[in-house]
Input
Amino acid sequence: MEQLANFINGKFIEPKSEGYIDVFEPATGQVYSKVPNSSSADINVAFKPANEALPGWSKLTVTDDHNTYIKLLNY
Output
């Protein structure tokens, strides 16, 4: 079963909070993944790099923005 971490500043980081939330298939009830039960401490870790990245992101064209998301999906 896949267990995900928070993706912060280009890195997968384990959550500071304890515990994960089950992600399940509604039709079968089968758990297929776990995601972090992130807390305010996790948000605080993510806030600084996100805030620093904002000026660069705001200058991207729609095409650049789209291509960046595609790269992220394939990461």
Residues 9 and 53 are 9 Å apart (CA to CA).
